[in-house]
Amino acid sequence: MCFAQPKLKYHAMYSDFLSGQIHFDCNQFKFSLPMELCREPNSSANHENYRLAMRQRETMLAQLQSDKLSYQTRLTKMMLSRPPGTLSEDEAAASLFMSKRTLARKLKREGRSFRKIRDEILSQQAATYLHDSQLSIEAIAALMNYHDSANFRRAFKRWCDPSSEQFRQNVRSQTVHPYD
Q1: pLDDT mean over 165-175
Q2: Coil vs helix vs strand at 10
Q3: Which of 39, 53, 85, 130 gives the lowest tally of CB atoms within 10 Å of its CB?
Q4: What's the pLDDT score for residue 41?
């Protein structure tokens, strides 16, 4: 393992946590893994969820007009670049180099609010998960960063009016079955 930093006073402790040779003052940070370790599958990976999330993110980003950078568009792009529901209004304002109050005023001039934009994005993402996947409501709630599926169910009902279960049943009843 190579570190770009100089040796620190406690450099001897590195060997307590890292095996192999340890070098300091290198021109780059570098570490090596055995190839057999690189070939081990990630036991916690869920490729279906990953592909679904990436497809959804790309679709939503493509819908944004890149030439018109309204504050709504900027905020939407920020929200889509993070896990669902994790961007706070304070973080968004700081990223745009303004106060939370200034961001609220600029969004109000566009007829929008942080909460409206967040709710629209979350409702679209939730509806897409319910429509395009066989994931349980609990799994979708977790993907949407709800620690309690009951809170997700209430939020979905507020966003879309039918409950998440009714929404999914409606989607399934509208699906055409070619062999029926």
Answers
A1: 83
A2: coil
A3: 39
A4: 79
- Per-residue model confidence as pLDDT tens digits over 136-158: 999 999 999 999 999 999 999 99
Long-range pairs for 108-117: beta carbons < 8 A, 24 or more residues apart = 110/70, 110/71, 110/72, 112/71, 112/72, 114/75, 114/89, 117/72, 117/75, 117/76, 117/79
Give residue 105's pLDDT: 96
Count of Cβ atoms closer than 10 Å to residue 59 Cβ? 12
Nearest-angstrom CA–CA distance, 129 and 148: 17
**Which pLDDT does position 179 carry in this prediction?**
44
Give the CA distances from residue 130 to residues 54, 65, 117, in Å, rounded to whole numbers and listed in that order.
16, 26, 20
Give one DSSP letter per residue of 44-97, joined into a string.
T--HHHHHHHHHHHHHHHHHS-SS---HHHHHHHHHHTSSTT---HHHHHHHTT
DSSP classification of residue 111: T
CATH of 47-173, one of 1.25.40.10, 3.40.50.1000, 1.10.10.60, 2.30.30.110: 1.10.10.60
Look at the block and give the residue holding tokens 């940070």.
Answer: 29
